[in-house]
Amino acid sequence: MVRYHHLGNLWLTLATIGSLGFADPAAAQDAGRGLELMRASEKGNCSICHLVPGIGLPDEAQGNIGPSLEGVGARLTPAELRAQIVDARAMNPETIMPPYGSIKGLADVDKRYRGRPILTAGEVADIVAYLSSLR
């Protein structure tokens, strides 16, 4: 019963993401801008938790809480990357990764992000473009 519940939530979440424009393949995608967003401390700041190739920091200055993103473009499809960035809780309810494209179920949110996600649909698309290039 729990499995069906989680699968239902996953499909509902993916359908919702699609309806918000996060899954729109026609969205402008700029891998260079995605890399800049991943480096930006007020936006993605991905290297605080992940090892991110090409981010311009030595490996030892990057995080190891989350998995290395080396080769992630060969392991995950753009849709899977997008879903992880928007709200990783859909795939793993126990994740500590922040939902960068969702505000659902959040508490104690920084004033700058109350009522809006950290990343826009276009910013998510740009980050997905960069991560998809990591093969």
User: What name goes with the CATH superfamily?
Assistant: Cytochrome c-like domain
**Shape, principal axes of CA atoms:** globular
Assembly type of the chains comes to: single chain
- Portion of residues within helices: 25-40%
Q: Could you report the average pLDDT, rounded to the nearest whole number? A: 83
Give the tally of β-strands.
0
List low-confidence stretches. 1-26
Biggest sheet features: none
Please tell me about this protein's structure.
The model is unreliable at 1-26 (pLDDT under 50). The chain is mainly alpha-helical. The chain has a single domain (2-132), classed as Cytochrome c-like domain (Cytochrome Bc1 Complex, Chain D, domain 2, Orthogonal Bundle). The protein has five helices and no strands.
Structure summarized in a few sentences:
This protein has 135 residues and is mainly alpha-helical.
Key phrases:
electron transfer activity; heme binding; Cyt_c-like_dom; Sulfur oxidation c-type cytochrome SoxX; Cytochrome Bc1 Complex, Chain D, domain 2; iron; globular; 0% strand; mainly alpha; 135 residues; 39% helix; 5 helices
